[in-house]
Amino acid sequence: MAMPVFPVGDDPGSDFPQLLSRVGLGQSPLPTGVVAGVPHATTCVALRFADGVVMAGDRRATAGHLISHRSMEKVVQADRHSGVAIAGAAGPAVEMIRLFQVQLEYYEKVQGTALSLEGKANQLAAMVRANLPAAMQGMGVVPIFAGYDMRRSVGRLWDYDMLGGRYEEREFVATGSGSLHAGTVVKVGFRPGLDRSAAVELVARALWEAAEADSATGGPDMIRGIFPIVATITAQGWATVSDDELAERYRSIIEQAGQVVER
Questions:
Q1: What stretch of H or E contains 129?
Q2: How far apart are CA 54 and CA 196, in angstroms?
């Protein structure tokens, strides 16, 4: 095919799909949206509390309208004082996080000291940007990065867009298909200086409400004993909230929901 030539005044502009249509090639060959059959992770939230940050994510992965996995771990420890929560195409997300963990460990072994928390956020941004070709085909990854900054003695949060842009949030952040509902619950219930118990309760309730409104978000499975992954990151490091504690909290939430229905 010869290079198309356009006369003066007929500049095709920057709309590439429209250009393809004008030269007879139809629509852009790059599909958008969710690729059918590719498992996608969904809702994750993170917020600051008095001692650091708490991260939480549901366990459901979906492929279109099907539940492809009921116990996926979307909140993952990056190193002792940081973690990543993933939403988007599950395969690229898991691969990205594994590589991120290796890079942080390698840096610490070579340099003899851990990379700064902001440096870790920058490194993850570069990895998200490198995934752009896959994102254009519907396999994007949109993580949350959070950790305890040992230099500033404070918890910090970042969210990302598919182009690798990183944005530090001051109080809380949510991502994934249920982020609107989870983020609204956190926004209403958030108070500066929450203690650990109140912070864990808030993210647990946020994921519960997201699961009630979003079919791609999995709620607590009391029959199978599957609960969201919830972890805190403080000056003492990463700590996962036990399933026993989460089960007790969700029993309380379910009881409260039942009382509302009875009224």
A1: helix 117-130
A2: 8
Tokens of 112: 């003899």
Domain ranges of the chain: 40-258
The CATH number of the structural domain formed by 40-258 is 3.60.20.10
Question: How far is 245 from 247, CA to CA, in rounded Å?
Answer: 5
Angle of helix 90-111 versus helix 117-130 axis, rounded to 10: 140
pLDDT digits (tens, 9 = 90+) for 27-42: 444 444 445 456 777 8
Phi/psi for 76 (5° steps) reads: -130, 140
Q: What angle do CA 199, 205, 211 make, to 5 degrees?
A: 140
Q: Report residue 10: phi and psi, to 5°.
A: -120, 40
Give me the residues paired with residue 88 across strands.
Answer: 41, 141
pTM of the model: 0.83
Give every CB contact of residue 221 below 8 A, 6+ residues apart in sequence: 59, 70, 227
**Active-site annotation holds for 184:** no
Any residues with CB less than 8 A from the CB of 110 and at least 6 apart, and which? none
Q: Which of 32, 42, 175, 234 is catalytic?
A: 42
